[in-house]
């Protein structure tokens, strides 16, 4: 079994801590979501859902944050943001 990257390990820890919220991780110039959060973000924000090393993920450029955050909140989700 392949070991998860440090980013994915951190995402798992944070998702466990903020399990009632969608977790967006600010990585470089993008916000990324993983696993079930990626599926929700992709559906609500109409972003591409892909898999990297079998991990579902989606993301959007940092400059689009003010566009996508209200969509998630309007859909009834709490959102946690982690700056990596």
From TrEMBL:
InterPro entries the record matches: DNA_mismatch_repair_MutS-lik_N (IPR007695), DNA_mismatch_repair_MutS_N (IPR016151)
GO BP: mismatch repair
Residues spanning the membrane: none
Pfam families named among the record's database cross-references: MutS_I
Coiled coil: none
Molecular-function GO terms, alphabetical: ATP binding; mismatched DNA binding
Segments forming domain DNA mismatch repair protein MutS-like N-terminal: 6-82
Record's protein name: DNA mismatch repair protein MutS-like N-terminal domain-containing protein
Source organism of the structure: marine sediment metagenome
High-level lineage: unclassified sequences, metagenomes, ecological metagenomes
């Amino acid at each position: 079994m392949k070991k998860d990257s440090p980013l994915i390990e951190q995402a798992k820890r944070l998702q466990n801590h903020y399990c009632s919220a969608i977790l967006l991780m600010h990585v470089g110039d993008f916000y990324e979501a993983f696993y079930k959060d990626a599926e929700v973000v992709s559906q609500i924000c109409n972003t591409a859902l892909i898999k990297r090393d079998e991990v579902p993920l989606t993301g959007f450029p940092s400059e689009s944050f003010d566009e996508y955050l209200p969509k998630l909140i309007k859909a009834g989700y709490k959102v946690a943001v982690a700056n990596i």
